[in-house]
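ok here's the first one, seq then struct tokens
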Amino acid sequence: MKVLVVGGGGREHALCWRLAASAKCETLWCAPGNAGIAEVADCLPIQPEDIEGILAFCRQRRPDLVVIGPEAPLVAGLVDRLAEAGIPAFGPTAAAAILEGSKGFMKDLCAKYGIPTATYGRFKHPGPAMAFVHQLNGPVVVKADGLAAGKGVVVCLNADEAEAAIYAALREGRFGVAGEEVVVEEFLEGEEVSFFALCDGQTALPLASAKDHKRVFDGDHGPNTGGMGAFTPAPLMTEALEERVMREIVLPTVEGMAAEGRPFHGVLFAGLMIGKDGAPKLLEHNVRFGDPECQVLMLRLESDLLTLLQAATEGRLSEMKPEWSPKAALTVVMAAEGYPGSYVKDTEIRGLEAAQEVPGVKIFHAGTYRSPEGALLSSGGRVLNICALGEDLAEARRRAYEAVDMIDWPEGFCRRDIGQAAIKT
């Protein structure tokens, strides 16, 4: 098979690495890729949002499957355009990708189909939004309705903070078009877990759970980011809880989307809050693999990824049963100084070869490129994913940080507490 992966981050490096390992995969392209992806795929100078460029390439080279990593091209309808050209693609249509493209749509779907989630309201004007804040009378979460690269969610402990967040989105345009409408919802307490399922429009196949770390600094301080580290499996996700999440959240979502005439194909990523009573509630749905959760999932996946994605695309998921390593996997994100604000670029990174010699370690590139002289340079905010497998979470964590400490990159930083709270001392 000839396969094209769309995207150039750590998630796409992990997907390319797994796809390249498939006996079925003869040719692998990635648009645009990065320095790490270039080791396993041919990188193309086409950006994920360049739908016309991707279509032109696909019409010429006719890939057997296109795997779309990021959410923006999915929401923009890349799958629809590829289908019109007769090119099979893994991912939802624009009509189904609205699950992530509009947080308000997702909340309305929950209300209509009885999916447990936080009490919420949708607002385009600050006055009614603030009236709802006072009605909830407690901490709230203010979310930009559209895509905001993981940065459109503000947790507000009081009415003053809520007012600032609402005005920033609706009056000051902080999130652009994405923030022209906001969702205000009650703040849920408990433990967050990421859960993933493959979907083919009718069947939903549970994959695995993971735990993400969104805040930029140790101890969950600082602004939200796209994710500073993750591990899998999440200790909280028992077999019984997984069955409950599938029954109460994933299956009603898939059935609801089908009933709405928006059948969902691809990865359904449920961001969950598990309350003190053990009951799961849906925080948000994403319509693609999480980043950096994908990286640790790919380390544990023992089944052929290409076979699974092909089955999802062709409506044959009922025949599949993914196999997982019983080991734990953890990733530490190394980011450029200043991230998630303005950050330094084009700085040299050394020591990766030695770091990858640590047993169980795999490094996925997120924002890197090679200079003409062959030096490895940074090109993004999140730059490297230092991942490791271990017999348990403690071993995976020790290995990952041992590798981190071998990397020579003065302009980079990372959190030092990924997975720490989950390790029983």
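and now the second one, same deal
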Amino acid sequence: MARIPDSGELNLQRRARLLSGVRALAGATVQKLWLPSPAVAVLQLRVPRRTTLVVLDARLALAALASERSTSSESAPRSQATLRAAIEDARLAAARLIALPGRDGVAVRLELETESGLRALIAGDGPALLLVASADGQERIVWAASGAGPERRPGSTYAGGREIAIESAADAQAPGDADLVRRALAAEETAGVAARRRELEKRLRARVQRMRRTLAAVEADAERAAQAIEDRRRAELLVPHQSRIARGASEARVPDWEDLDEHGSPREVVLPLDPSLSAAQNAAKWFRRSHRYQAAAARIAGRRASVAADLQQAEGLLARAAAATDAEALRAVEEQATAVFPARPARAERRAEAPRVPYRTFRSSSGERILVGRSARDNDALTLRVARGNDLWLHARGVQGSHVVVPGAGEAPDARTLADAALLAAHFSRARGEDLAEVSWTRRKHVRKTKGAPAGSVIATQERTLRVRLSAARLAELLSSEE
């Protein structure tokens, strides 16, 4: 955001005059801080027997005394807490006006003595506020409000400017100064609400998109469950006639005694067959598939209802966020969104706060948990201590790789979850990068470890094999689902 002059009124002399009132507070203590937007900070300073408010505006490159703080703390960016923790209880050491090197502009610099050393809060060098600290003879940025730009990330070296001499001003406030500060604060407060609304909309829109994908996957499973009834019906029609149907046939014509014509004769039904299987094997396959999906039908229906309800709620919150025009309305939506859909902490925070577990957790397209061992020793811990008897267990066939567990899969494993777990097993193995890989799967109760075997080495029985074809898009979605 470029600096916007105030109709030619905000010249160097006026900035210096406004800053003189702040300079007079040297020695005051920072009690509180608010960020109406990334460009504006309001500091409450304690001086003997009273408190005073100071406004810093990065967009206008000014610091001035204020008669009121922002009325809508709900509009504050998330980084407010970080800056507050860094400078609360600090002592104001100096207030300077700085000429930016190599640029036609000025900035305001408030120097603060903190427990961690001298810090400087800078307004005007870029579109957002900066906090810098001295280290090894150089200054480095230790905090930057959102929108500061990639060259002003925390840790970057900061090139300060030359101080502009300010003569003492007997009249630190002139007609119109208070109105200027008030208008600047109100404008940035409005901008802060708009920024928070965009952030909330982005978060809710991403959740809506994820839920729509999940609902589509669950509805596909529901369609397969509905097809299970037809599979059983076809198997029951085929079984009485399977002995007379030659292997390799692509179809079977059988009578349907539940569908009679006007003469009382059964109508003929054409059943498509897999030519690589016998008629008996075709019927057995239909029976197995029918049993698997019929057993999962109730779970799939419940999952579909739950996801559909969550999606409807997320869409409603997104519509309300888009329509919010003030901080109060936006705060109500934020509170409900946080209550219904709590934000997950950042991955680094989760690693720091949570006790270490021997596995990484991902979510399948159906929303089920998939656990992936982190190392050979962790594979043993996941398989032998975490997994339960009927949990699904997977491993890339014939190569080294992570053990993968799907907990609570039940009697009828979800087909999409099984496919996603197999894709992860292939990815976290020596088969990574191959277009096609084979993955073995069985129940955990059929996996055992022999005495003296190396870490991660086990023996699995009653295995089945899946051929997994790499899907870069699906793999990216799975990896992004890590909790």
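notes on #2: The first helix runs from residue 12 to 23. Residues 196-249+279-340 form one domain.
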